[in-house]
Amino acid sequence: MVNGFTSKRFIENGQDSGSGIANVKWVRSVAPQRNITVRQVLNSAVMANGNHNGITDDVIDPIQCAHCDPRITVLSGQWDDDPGWSDTDFDNKNNHSLIIRVDFGDSSFLFDGDLEESGIGNVLTFYRNGSAHASLLHADVYHVGHHGSNNATTRPFLEEITPVIAVISVGRWDYGKGSNSPFTTWAYGHPRTATLDLLAGTIQGQRSDPVFPKAATKSKTFLQRAVRKKIYATAWDGNVKIRATLHKDFTVTRNN
Questions:
Q1: What residue numbers bound the domain in which 182 lies?
Q2: Over the stretch 75-127, which tens digit does the pLDDT of each residue have?
Q3: Residue 134: which pLDDT band, with cuts at 50, 70 and 90?
Q4: pTM of this structure
């Protein structure tokens, strides 16, 4: 992405190990000569002094428009202090994913990376205790966590978000089938039928064209199912583009 686009900002959680860290370290190394500003976000800064409004500044949100200025806010970053999890949960890099909220007029988007159940639980608890929690976790469009895995979407989280549209970034169901790699759609079993069921139980609107893709009941086990609600995925819709107006009108286009 950095090679393909002119990147001026790189917002990350500051970790130095884990899957994909080689790419992160590369961006850090080329940032000075490419004039990229790197911002590492820790929860000690996001939640300092009981702040329940997330964190933003000219680095996180450098976009300024006169009549339709979007707002970009980070709601969670790396947990530099253990919030009381087990050692396994704290060592799980996914639980330190950034949560990013984008507001465009009355339209809103929520991205929570690969955040898993422990991270979700703490974020819910923190923002529910703040007066602004409803406006921060409620979003029209939800980029579904961790490729639709069964440990990254929970009913309480969806009840707080109340999305109108969900988008899953995920490979085709048979990607990796026949290989020994553990890092594939096939090996992980993404997306899970349980996640699709939770999304379908929350989202009210119907797709104009029901689809019948395969989803996983567990690793390496996929069954065909119907998707009638406004749940879109790169696995069966190809590139998914969502265009929002300032007044909550959304247009979804796909290239499959």
A1: 44-255
A2: 999 999 999 999 999 999 999 999 999 999 999 999 999 999 999 999 999 98
A3: low
A4: 0.94
Q: CA nearest 50: which of 129, 120, 123?
A: 129
Picking from 242, 96, 249, 244, the residue whose alpha carbon sits closest to that of residue 168 is 242
> Looking at the domain assignment, is residue 129 inside a domain?
yes
Classify 83 as helix, strand or coil.
coil
Total number of domains constituting the chain: 1
In tens, the pLDDT along 32-84 reads 999 999 999 999 999 998 889 999 999 999 998 888 899 999 999 999 999 99
Distance of CA 130 to the CA centre of its chain: 22
Of the candidates 103, 107, 141, 142, the residue with the CA atom closest to the CA atom of residue 246 = 107
Neighbour-count burial for 5-32, b at 16+ CB within 10 Å, e otherwise: eebebbbbbeeeeeeeeeebeebeeebe
Instruction: Indicate the Cα dihedral angle 143, 146, 149, 155, nearest 10°.
Output: -50
- 79, 126 contact by CB (below 8 A): no
Say if 183 falls within a structural domain.
Answer: yes
